[in-house]
Amino acid sequence: MIKDFNIADFTLVLSGGGALGIAHLGVLHDLEKHNILPQEIVGTSMGGIIGACISIGMHEKEIHEHIKSFAKIYNWIKFSFSGNAIVDSDKIAMIFNDIFHNRKMNETQIPLKLIATNLLNGHKRVFSASDEDIYIKDALLSTMAIPGIFDEHVIDGNTYGDGFLCENLGINEATLTDVLAVDVLGENSFQKTMPDNFFKTANVLEMFERSIRLLIYNQTRTHIRNSDKNIYLLEPETKDYKTFHFHKVKEIRALGLNLL
Question: Which end of the chain is more exposed for a tag (fewer CB within 10 A), N or C?
Answer without folding.
Answer: N
